[in-house]
Amino acid sequence: MTKGATRAKLNHHDVGQNTISMNLQRPNRWPRRVTEARRVQEKLRANVITRNVFGKIHTVAGIDVGYEKNGKVTRAAVVVLDFPSLTPVDQVVARQLTRFPYVPGYLSFREIPAVLAAMKKLRRRPDLLLCDGQGLAHPRRFGLACHLGLLLDIPSIGVAKSRLTGTNGEVPDTKGAWVPLFDHPSSHPRLNGDVHLLPLSLQRGKGEGDFPHPRAPLPKGEGGEPSALARDLVHSGASRGALHAHLEIIGAVLRTRAGVQPVFVSIGHRISLASAIDYVLRCTTRYRLPETTRSAHRLASTNP
Question: Are 53 and 270 in contact (CB under 8 A)?
């Protein structure tokens, strides 16, 4: 737990024989200025876990955030879907006074208070969050999906409609095709389990522990062979160009449907990039956006 934070229960319900609870690392004072928010991002980003830390996924949740009364009120809609059927099992809408100005790169400080209020009303605790925004694909590697996942201690994925930072190659026009999203290394300390956010260097750094050093080669599979993700990266033209540029993999540009624009997937918290891509595809049906996002947007649109 970070200094100046308190451990609190967001929700505690009994549904049949299951006890539903969500833990929140809640700061004592929510930032009101960009300088304060930046310090929070820089302090918390090292706590983001970039490997799979979860059990079987039974429920997934989507979040939609909008504004009312000329931006004075923030509205958050959360829909929980059964997985893998994607059938809705719970949904809530909450409103909060807007506490933070609109500043790109700091939207989590504007949106999360209303999202937390909505999460508190849920009867079903989601096992995985798909956030309509960035995760690690953020200038300071701490977008909305990272911030929310860390506060709630729930695995989370950023699924954004547009790119905030980084560069990528052309994505083949086939459902499931993807290319890495690269960026120059940020100044953040090493993340917990920094496996897929690696400058593609051919030299292994000294003193690395159980998880690859930020300058280590790409991850290996259980048998010592390159992992599926590593093989995809090696065959990517963007990857070959990055071998000499020491670029950092911050996400994936994923084609969820042929003939439509790709989405930008990145780790939020407690999940690997390979798993994030997999779950986004498994939550996507006939449309560009996953059903989690579509369902939350639909709920928000029908609750004026």
Answer: yes
